[in-house]
Amino acid sequence: MSNQVDICAKFDAEYTPCNSKEKLGIAIETIGKLPINGLRHVAENGTCGWYIWCGEEWSDEADFFKPLYVSHIDKYLPQIVPYLALPPGHRFLIADGYEDIWQDLALIGI
To answer: Tens of pLDDT along the chain (110 residues)?
Structure first.
């Protein structure tokens, strides 16, 4: 598995690692579905900006995402760890043998 520096280099993105004491939002109830999705907003209020969910369904429900320390994500979705240094304004979608990373400037208000 590629590491974070390799992923950022592969997609010509600035290496912007998360602090392990920051939190991300994860839709715990969706774990086990594919694909695995992630999007990163600008960090604020002790978060790293990442929101992670699995499957094709997104929910606007207030409790869809639960806070989780970055240091604990490898217990739930170790396969996404290499993508967590992509900078704000990026998204990823991964599934068995499939990887897509793209920039979405709307995430950072551009």
So the answer is: 469 999 999 999 999 999 999 999 999 999 999 999 999 999 999 999 999 999 998 898 989 999 999 999 999 999 999 999 999 999 999 999 999 999 999 999 98
Read out DSSP for the chain? ---HHHHHHHTT----PPPTTSEEEE-GGGBTBSSEEEEE----TTEEEEEEEESS-----TTSSEEEEGGGHHHH-GGGGGGTTSPTTEEEEEETTEEEEEE-GGGGT-
Task: Compute φ and ψ for 73, nearest 5 degrees.
Answer: -65, -30
CA–CA distance, 73 with 63 (Å, rounded to integer):
18
* 104, two tokens: 């979405």
Amino acid identity at 21? K
Across the beta sheet with 23-26, what order do the strands follow? 66-69, 23-26, 47-54, 36-40, 90-95, 98-103
